[in-house]
Amino acid sequence: MQIWGDLPLLILLLVTALGAVIVRDLIGAVLILGSYSFFLALCWAWMGSPDVAFTEAVVGSGMSTVLFLFALFQTVPQEDPSSHRDTPWFVALGLGVLGLLLLYGAIDLPRFGDIAAPANAYLSPTYIQQSLEQMNTPNIVTAILMDYRSLDTLIETAVVFTAGVACALLLRRHDS
Amino acid sequence: MFENLLSPNFTTFITLFIFGLTIMVTHHNLIKKLIGMYLVQTSIIFFLVTIGAKSGSTVPILLSAAGPIEPHVYANPLPHALVVTAIVVGVSTLGVSLGLTIAIFRRYGSLEEDEILKRLE
Asked: Which fold has domain B2-54+73-120?
């Protein structure tokens, strides 16, 4: 895995992100956002995480696009061009300073793809070596998600259920 | 020391994060604000997956059960397990915020922040 190997995908990511914001027709913007999600899934597959790529392709690229389109069909699909004003100077300054701080923090991060980085050397070798013996699942991500952290996954489904209930309560129509 | 600044993945993360945050602050259309929120969410997930990448490794699915398992052959599975949950929860929050947007539109008849503020008074 070379450091520049996914550069075409990253350029496509930035271009589609820019396109999703520039386009004034909101349905077009949402469809471009769906393609952004898909390129993101390809990036993750390139970095060796097929589980994340599948989830992003199904949930991010498919489901969230459908949700956006559902919302747009019930509202107006056009952005009002007159409403866009100039950015106040302190907002631009604050975001610029934040970007510089993030760049400054990136200097101290471990190198991309470093095998000896703390995130890769501290705990994860234990999971890689012992998950098959303990859980009998060859896919390590599934073993962590469904066996070691199964309570977390249960509570995650509770979160999704709560979101569904909240949407149903928000969108019910009052007949009175 | 500065090799991380040359790494395209970290700079892409920072660009997407700042870009999404800018859209959330400066755009006045509620759907555009949600698109910015989605960009911020996905950029942070992108960063976590980048941290877990190992050069020369394959996907975290064991190739064979026989013999000792070498950790450097497989990508780091912990960020992946964390991030799969984060994607699903992110889409749930997106769904609730879109529901709120529809409710706002039914009440005030607009998606533009200025219009809504005007009609609130």
From this structure: Helix Hairpins (1.10.287)
